[in-house]
Amino acid sequence: MGTGFFGTIEKIPFKGADSTDPLSYRFYDPDEVVMGKRMEDHLRFAVAYWHSFAWEGGDPFGGRTFDRPWYDGEMDKAKLKADVAFEMFKILGAPYYCFHDADVRPEGRTFAESRKNLEEIVDYFARKQEETGVKLLWGTANLFSNRRFMSGASTNPDPDVFAYSAATIKSCMDATMKLGGENYVLWGGREGYETLLNTDMSREFDQMARMLHMVVDYKHKIGFKGAILVEPKPQEPTKHQYDFDVATVYGFLRKYGLENEVKMNIEQGHAILAGHTFEHELALASTLGIFGSIDMNRNDYQSGWDTDQFPNNVPEMALAYYQVLKAGGFTTGGTNFDAKLRRQSIDPEDLLIAHIGGMDCCARGLKAAARMVEDGALQKPLDERYAGWAKPEAQKMLKGEYSLDQIAEKVERDNINPEPRSGRQEYLENIVNRYV
Questions:
Q1: Which residues sit in the known binding site for Mg(2+)?
Q2: Which residue, 217, 283, 270, is CA-closest to 244?
Q3: Whole-number Å distance between alpha carbons of 245 and 236
Q4: Per-residue confidence at 158, pLDDT binned at 50, 70, 90?
Q5: At which positions is Mg(2+) 1 bound (predicted)?
Q6: Residue 74 scores a pLDDT above 90
Q7: How many Cα neighbours within 13 Å face the side chain of 200?
Q8: Where are the domains of the chain?
Q9: Which residues are annotated as catalytic?
Q10: What is residue 217's predicted lDDT score, i.e. its pLDDT?
Q11: How confident is residue 300, by pLDDT bands cut at 50, 70 and 90?
Q12: CATH topology of domain 33-375
């Protein structure tokens, strides 16, 4: 029996591209086979518990605009929120969800009380998962909202906050393990600084690395088979986040010997805030061997803030999923909608429509990307551009068989005087536009 929150809506159907029904999928058909795999298995959609059910619609200039029946309550309201959440997962046909601990359980007066509340709701989630077949893509800990974390969690100057954070992470890893989660994410919401006047950066890096090493050690101790993921973010809320982008995080992992244990959960909006494109961050993570999962949303390009809007730009999605497919696709990762309604979109139906539109947009992007891969539309010109490196002499240079002075001698002896060749950017952009 449903909660009634979404009225009489039971399941969003696939009706095809000609549909004008806002409560239908036009492009997302979970059973459609793309490159030999069902679309659902490619995209692995997940709903973000925090934005969809915990966020109240506030902004820096105004408070709650959403009126949800589970706000301002204890365990009974937390369970009602879970009932509505899993009902929505089933209505959408979303195979996964993601959560922070603070999203799902009431805050206790002590850590022990908060932990017990989390364990109770995890037991409830386990029953809901069994009833619905919906699975947990990843869990994480909220180490940023409470005032105790105002100076960071693992990077905090107070060792008691470090200890509290470690205990919180352990409880969330236990919860993720119990629910069969396929990844565990660390999002350093306040791991950074406001001013170097009161910050010992070297000390804070060492603290953050110690925490991450403990997380990896605990993963192996409990036999967690999923991936440990770090989510890069350049700024907001701190002036400078230590996990600025994929390259910065990789440098940190290499410095502390963690590059073979940790992968990336990459968000579209964070990539934009870092001054990159989403496909850049995805391609770099793949190149470095640390690609894991994605948070799908978009930013308002007129704003310097993380607006977390649902995706609606198909060309952007096509280029993103092109990089995902080139990386071999998702293994434990997936597409989590780290996106929220606009604070004026107050109706329950708006929550469904936002996800429907985002899922359709991703489906169109995936299909365009798959056609580009299958046709070699971008790979063939790329191979042609680098074809010279397949020649024996070029391979010898690359393998270190020639020294710098030997190469210089060869350039003079053979009168090597190369002419530049076009990069054909506009031609390639036009190719992409043919597919989207």
A1: 231, 267, 270, 295, 306, 308, 338
A2: 270
A3: 13
A4: very high
A5: 231, 267, 295, 338
A6: yes
A7: 8
A8: 33-375, 390-435
A9: 100, 103
A10: 98
A11: confident
A12: TIM Barrel (3.20.20)
